[in-house]
Amino acid sequence: MWHFHGKYWIFKRLFLKQVKCVYPFRLMRPDDANIVGNVHGGTILKMIEEAGCIIGTRHCNTQPGDRCVAALARVERTDFLYPMFIGEVAHVSAEITYASKHSVEVQVNVMSENILTGSKKLTNKAALWYVPFSIQNLEKIIKVPPIKYASAEEEAEGKRRYEAQKMERLETKERNGELSRPVPAPDRTTKEPHTVGFSQSSLIHLVGPSDCTLLGFVHGGVTMKLMDEVAGIVAARHCKTNIVTASVDAINFHRKIKKGCVVTVSGQMTFTSNKSMEIEVFVDADPLIETEEGKYRAVTAFFTYISLDKEGKPLPVPPLKLEGEEEQKRFEEGKERYLQNKTKRLAGIERKQ
Length: 353
Ligand code: COA
Known about the structure:
The chain is of the alpha+beta class. The protein is about 35% helix and about 30% strand. The chain has two domains: about 1-145, Hotdog Thioesterase (Thiol Ester Dehydrase, Chain A); about 195-350, Roll (Thiol Ester Dehydrase, Chain A), CATH 3.10.129. The chain has six helices and twelve strands. The protein binds coenzyme A. Coenzyme A (COA) binds near residues 141 and 252. Coenzyme A binds near residues 129, 131 and 218.
C-alpha cells in the first residue's frame, strides 16, 4: 500500500510539474523601464510570453513522437493592474488551464514584490494560446497531449473560453484583411500637434537569432515588446508627459516572422477619451532573402495608454484632432471599443465586491 501511494505521489508531482510552472523571479533594472522608473508594459508582456512558451513547450513534449516548440497564437485582452518599478522583483507563474486538439491555453500571473517592505501586488493576469509545431517540419502542427482537470465544470469552462476565442478570431481575421493598408511615413514637420499624423511613429528591426525560438521564428513576446515600444512613443509624442500601458486588446498571431526578416512596427493614435489614448499598432514583415514571399502584415493590435503626472496620477489627455473621414471612422470605432471595455471592467469590479 505504501509502495502504491509512493508511486502515485511521484506521478502526481511529475504531472503537476508539467501543468504548473514558476518562472525564475527577476529584479527589474533601469533598461526594463522608462525614464521615471515604470517598468515598460512590453517588458512584462515579454516575461509573460516566455513563461507561457516554456510551459506550453514542456507540456507538448510529454508524449512520444515528434519533438515540438509551442508558438504563440493568441493573447487575450490584458490589463495592467498596478505599475511595477525598477528595484522591484517580478514573479511570474504559469499554468495550463485548457488543452484542445492542437492548442493549449496558459494562464499567467505576474506579481511585483517590494523587497524593502515585503509587500506583493498582482500586476497582471494574462491568458495565452499556444500551438505546437514539429521541430522536424516547421509547417506541421502536432496533437496536444490531454490535461487532467480538477472537475468537469473546470473542463467545460475551458471549452467555453476556447469556443469563444475561436468565434472572435474569425471576425479579427476579416478585420486584419481590411486593414492591410500601408502606414504612411510619419511627417512631423508639416503636421500640427495632436493630429494623428503628428504622433504617428515607426521602428525598423532586423530579426536576429536572439529574437527567435528554436525553430527560427520570432517569439511572440519579442514582437509584443516592439509593439509596446512604438505605442509608447506615439502616446508620449501626443501628450508629452510620462505615459504607461493600461491594457492591450486581444492579439492574434496569424503569420510567423522568420529569422532574417526586417520588421516595421508602426503606431497610429485612433482614439482619445478624457484620460486615455488608444493606439493601433501594425507589424509588417519583409523577408529580405526569401524573395518569393513578399512583405506581409503579421500582426495588428490596440494598446491603451494613460498619461501620468509627477505623482503618478492620471492626467487629462489633449483631444485628438481628426483630419478626414477615415480618421473620424477609426475614432468612432475606438470609442466603441473604449465603451465596451469600460463596461466589462466595471462589471468585473462589481462582481468582485
Ligand atoms: N489563437 C488561438 N488558437 C489558434 C489561433 C489563434 N489565433 N489560430 C489557430 N489556433 C488553433 C486552432 O484552434 C487549432 O486548434 P484545434 O484544432 O484544437 O481547434 C490549431 O490552432 C490549428 O489551427 P489551424 O486552423 O489548423 O491553423 P491555422 O492555419 O489557422 O494556423 C497558426 C494557426 C497559429 C499555426 C498560424 O496562424 C501561425 O503560424 N501563426 C504564427 C505563430 C507565431 O509565429 N507566433 C509568434 C508570433 S511573433
